[in-house]
Amino acid sequence: MWFEVEVEVRLREGVADPQGQTIEASLPHLGFVGVRGVRVGKSIRFSIEAADAGAARTAVDDMCARFLANPVIEDSAAVIIERPAVG
């Protein structure tokens, strides 16, 4: 079975986010007021082949812990959706 995966990686609360701070400070100069708490992260999308949803989840969680996110300063969350069979 194939699964579509979207992983969102974001800095943990309490970790400085200078990129988010720069965006937040710039928005009022562009006419966007009332925005606060800007945090920047990354989104990683891919397909994975696995025997079932549980095996896909295990593999994706392992990828996040070992490679896609830095567990010291980042949190990750993954959405895994089974891709319908073609044909």
Count up the helices: 2
How does CATH name the architecture?
2-Layer Sandwich
Order of helices and strands: EHEHE
Radius of gyration: 17 Å
Sheet with most strands? 3 strands, antiparallel
Task: Identify the quaternary structure here.
Answer: single chain
Number of self-contained structural domains: 1
Mean pLDDT: 95
- Find the structural class using helix and strand composition: alpha+beta
CATH class: Alpha Beta
Estimate the strand proportion: 25-35%
Molecular shape: elongated
Name the CATH superfamily assignment: Phosphoribosylformylglycinamidine synthase subunit PurS
Distance between the termini: 14 Å
Strands of the widest sheet, in order across it, are: 2-1-3
Provide the helix percentage. Answer: 25-40%
**Beta-strand segment tally:** 3
CATH topology tier name? Mth169, Chain: A
Low-pLDDT runs of 5+ residues are none
Summarize the structure.
The protein is of the alpha+beta class and 87 residues long.
What does this structure look like?
The protein is an alpha+beta fold. The protein has a single domain, classed as Phosphoribosylformylglycinamidine synthase subunit PurS (Mth169, Chain: A, 2-Layer Sandwich), CATH 3.30.1280. Helix content is 29%, strand content 32%. The protein has 2 helices and 3 strands. Strands 2-1-3 form a 3-stranded antiparallel β-sheet, covered by helices on one side. The longest helix has 16 residues, at 53-68.
Please outline the helices and strands.
Layout: E1 2-11, H1 18-26, E2 41-49, H2 53-68, E3 74-82
Antiparallel strand pairs: 1-2, 1-3
